[in-house]
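TA notes, week 10

Several of you asked for a full example with nothing omitted. So below is the full record: structure tokens for the whole chain, then the designed sequence directly under it. When grading your own attempts, check the secondary structure regions first.
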């Protein structure tokens, strides 16, 4: 691993059954990087994230976080990570406040520290008034805000985000993007997986495109532009993943409806 790497992934392979879904991922990630981790459906993004979080341990290859081999039995590395899961599972019978204190405890925070930080952040996200209500009564965006608050509450060094903008209104998206750039400027590492190409293009300082379990592009947006004639990340994504049939597919779907 390079001396400075926060996350070091060497020849990562993973299969759930016969076929490998990750086929040898190599990645060195430095502090302060905002990694946009993108790829077609089924490419292996969530599988990579689950490996980094220690949720999958039957992988091949080596993964180190802050120099610690994550398979060495010590789960200390998890305290340095904050995670916003895609379509997050959340304990809906708890109130927002209870959930914040529960997650704070898991990360080893004192109750009053978690409560104070949580309430303040909830205020900035305009959900402070509802913290006493059960999460089951929250709207989609309110739940997402709570997931973001609890992912950040322990001030983690690494923030892993799987479609974090799900359900957020445009104002909250602005706040969230600003938070990410400030955290990265403070040396935190952000691992951001999303299908929203315009957001990834804007916020990432390094974009990694995976397809069928392999990295097919890795660089800044400017560097990726040199690999393709297309000017947008969406166009580059389509070209590098060999997808050119959107018009024909849309036409066939409409024809199916008309017959
Ligand atoms: P998406 O953009 O659709 O979320 P992804 O890039 O996150 O996709 P993964 O969820 O990592 O992709 O899935 C990669 C491959 O592994 C897919 O072929 C998927 O069917 C398979 N897979 C994922 N989880 C499991 C599982 N628990 N059991 C069996 N196969 C799985």
């Amino acid at each position: 691993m390079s001396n400075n790497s926060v996350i070091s992934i060497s020849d990562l392979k993973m299969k759930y059954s016969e076929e490998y879904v990750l086929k040898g991922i190599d990645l060195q990630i430095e502090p302060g990087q905002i990694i946009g981790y993108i790829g077609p459906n089924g490419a292996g993004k969530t599988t990579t994230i689950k490996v980094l979080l220690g949720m999958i341990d039957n992988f091949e290859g080596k993964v180190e976080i802050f120099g610690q081999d994550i398979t060495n039995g010590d789960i200390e590395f998890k305290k340095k990570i904050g995670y916003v899961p895609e379509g997050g599972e959340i304990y809906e019978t708890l109130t927002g406040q209870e959930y914040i204190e529960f997650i704070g405890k898991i990360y080893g925070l004192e109750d009053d520290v978690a409560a104070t930080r949580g309430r303040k952040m909830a205020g900035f996200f305009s959900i402070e008034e509802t913290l006493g209500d059960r999460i089951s009564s929250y709207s989609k965006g309110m739940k997402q805000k709570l997931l973001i608050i609890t992912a950040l509450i322990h001030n983690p060094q690494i923030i892993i985000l799987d479609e974090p903008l799900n359900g957020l209104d445009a104002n909250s998206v602005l706040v969230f993007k600003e938070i990410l750039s400030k955290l990265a400027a403070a040396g935190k590492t952000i691992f951001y997986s999303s299908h929203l190409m315009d957001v990834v293009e804007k916020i990432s300082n390094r974009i990694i495109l995976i397809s069928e379990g392999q990295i097919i592009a890795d660089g800044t947006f400017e560097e990726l532009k040199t690999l393709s004639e297309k000017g947008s990340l969406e166009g580059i994504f389509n070209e590098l993943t060999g997808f050119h049939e959107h018009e024909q597919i849309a036409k066939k779907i409409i024809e199916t409806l008309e017959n």
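The chain has a mean pLDDT of 91. Use that as a sanity check on your answer.
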